[in-house]
Write a structure and sequence with these properties.
This protein has 3 domains: 37 residues, no CATH class; 82 residues, no CATH class; 53 residues, no CATH class. The chain is 61% helix and 0% strand. It contains 6 helices and no strands.
Length: 175
Amino acid sequence: MTEQLWITTLLNHWFAGPANSVLGMLHIHPQNPQAPIDNTFAMEFLVFVLLMVFFMLVRASLSVDRPGALQHIVEGAEGFIENQSDEIIGHGSKGFTPFLMALGLFILLNNLIGLVPGFEPCLFLACADRHPGAFPGTARLCVALADLHFCFDDDDLPFRGSRRRALEFDRALEF
């Protein structure tokens, strides 16, 4: 077992019981029930929280009359994502811009967080020979994206997808 980071230790102290319950409902049994949350998930959770705070700060500082530097940076990034998605997806791509913006920032921050002392990167873009622990984080990201696809794919269902299919897909995988 790898050494736990300080944030992983805190998350396991606070949320080990609920995490074991959720994993049990999905028929997944962690290797260490006292510490079901690993460093990769802890880093992903930290990035999620940081992005939520970032987006709340951006939303709170929006101004038509006096846009700030943060608003200019976010509008520039949003314009870039929107132009790229319009060229690749085509008509109707505007609805995907917020999702693609959040996904791009999530992956970028997960890769860059390893530059901060005391944290480790999730290494979504790493090679296995240089970083042997890279694939568990990558596999979890792929599972999350596949779940999103299953939940939003079918046009004939009220939710445009099936949570049942996503859960069946998750149960078929072994981590």
